Amino acid sequence: MSLFRAGLLLLPLFISACSAPTLQQTTSAKTEQSISKQQDTTAASQQVNVPVNLENTLDEQIELAKLQYAELNSRSGVEPNMPYIDKEALITKQATIDTIQKLRTYNNQVHRQLTAIDERVEQRKKNGAPGDTIQILVSKTKVAMKDSTFKTQPLIGQWVRGESRIIRLKDSLLFNVQHSEDLLITYSESYQLLVNNKIISIIDPNKSKNHASFNVDTTGNDGSISGTLDYRTVKGIH
Fold it and tell me: Which of 68, 125, 187, 233 has the fewest beta carbons closer than 10 A?
């Protein structure tokens, strides 16, 4: 009888000893699942949706960088560096903020360079070296659009080295005011003559007269402009 009672007393201990590892494994598995879910949640929280205002700011800074890059490239005659931006790689808010700051720094640097060119242009107007100012006559120009083609009136103007200006081409038929098109002419600091950002001639400062032909896309890339221009070096702008 004593042995039977002793067996009954030891039985709970035996059952407890057998079940303890099973309980520990179950608790451990639940803990690992909880940690795994927490890690997944943390990873997902890093790939947050970038706020719309940040996306708009990023797009604005990218567009400004492209415009300033093109202007500095044409006016200086030297291709500047431009930061590479991969928008698809910007999966976090902080990465987008850092990229915006990077673009702002670049745009500020390019703006200072363009301002410096403006200052040199003004100085050349007052006291220019040979070849710093040229007079340009735009003639025999034809604008071909998708739904219309027209010849333009001749235009004449003066450009200083480093200067970029837009002129308005109008239909040679004076009564037709519907047809007109912008033309961007740039005289770069490296003596390049550009029409709509396309190099058409290299100016020789020691040669008084010359001419060049051009065939370029319109500023809206919806047509073409072809023609000729004559240019000559002058002493300065009066």
Answer: 125
- Name 185's bridge partners: 165, 195
At residue 141, does pLDDT exceed 70?
A: yes
pTM listed for this prediction: 0.74
Q: Using CA atoms, how far apart are residues 180 and 152, in angstroms rounded to an integer?
A: 8
**Alpha helices per DSSP H over the chain:** 2-46, 52-76, 93-126
Contact status, residue 145 vs residue 152, Cβ threshold 8 Å: no
Angle formed by the axes of helices 52-76 and 93-126, nearest 10°: 30
pLDDT digits (tens, 9 = 90+) for 153-166: 999 999 999 999 99
Element (H, E) at 180: strand 180-187
For residues 218 and 145, the answer to whether their CB atoms sit within 8 Å is yes
Rounded CA separation 141/26 (Å)? 85
Contacts of residue 180, defined as CB under 8 A and 6 or more positions apart, other chains included, come to 168, 169, 170, 171
Give the contacts of 173 (CB within 8 A, at least 6 positions apart). Answer: 150
Cβ 110 vs Cβ 72: under 8 Å? yes
